[in-house]
Amino acid sequence: MGVMSVLREGDRRVTKRLASWNSPWGRPLLLAAEDAAENSKLWCGAAVLMACTGGGRGRKAAAAGLGSLTVAQVLSNAVCKQLYERRRPPVEWIPHPEVHERPDSSSFPSGHTAAAVAFTAAVAPVWPWAGGACGVVAAMVAAQRVHSGAHYPSDVAAGALIGLAAAALVRNSPRLLLRLAL
Fold first, then answer.
1. Has residue 20 been placed in a domain?
2. Model pLDDT for residues 119-130, shown as the tens digit of each residue
3. For residue 132, what pLDDT band results from cuts at 50, 70 and 90?
């Protein structure tokens, strides 16, 4: 069995398993997290809250988070989704009605996950407590993307990698620019 076959089978198994999860308290929480994260409302709101209540550290965390989120969204939505067209998971794998509310764009990668991880990974080194709080919500957003049938687990994993790369790029960009200038 080749690598791609193993990946497809893993995507199928994890998607079916997560999509069939039907906790009376969990599903509403996942839906609320996804709704709040739509169009980055949640992360922009978190940045405003950090900037207004966290002093200099809060402003620095907010700026790092928003910068990383922006880079991640460009990489995931404007670059990767244009380079690789992947259909959403089959409707038959998803046993609940949210499956009919999926986007038409490419499934690969998860832009929601990329943004959530980028924001969290940029905030955490600056303000660990806020980064931890964001991390909980980012994990919920990532799980919801598979639960709803919007993405395969591998799409979410790729989005998380893009988010981590975006946060590292933003964190290191001042040093990189200084090296280029010298």
1. no
2. 999 999 999 999
3. very high
Residue 10 falls inside a structural domain: no
Q: Which residues contact 116 (CB under 8 A, 6 or more apart)?
A: 37, 43, 134, 137, 138, 141, 142, 163
Integer Cα distance of 151 and 153 in angstroms: 6
Judge whether 84 and 91 are in contact, CB under 8 Å.
no
The tens digit of pLDDT for each residue in 89-111 reads 888 887 776 666 677 788 899 99
User: pTM for the whole thing?
Assistant: 0.89
Give the pLDDT mean for 28-52: 87
Q: What is the CA radius of gyration of the chain?
A: 17
Q: Which residues form the domain of 175?
A: 26-181
- CA-to-CA distance for 24 and 8, rounded, in angstroms? 29
In a domain, 37, yes or no: yes
Structure tokens at 57: 């550290």
- Alpha carbon 95 to its chain centroid, in Å, reads 23
Residues in contact with 5: Cβ distance below 8 Å, sequence separation at least 6, in sequence order: none
Is residue 175 packed enough to be buried (19+ CB in 10 Å), middle (13-18) or exposed (0-12)?
exposed
Determine phi and psi for 107, rounding to 5 degrees: -70, -25
- Is 14 part of a structural domain of the chain? no
Number of structural domains found in the chain: 1
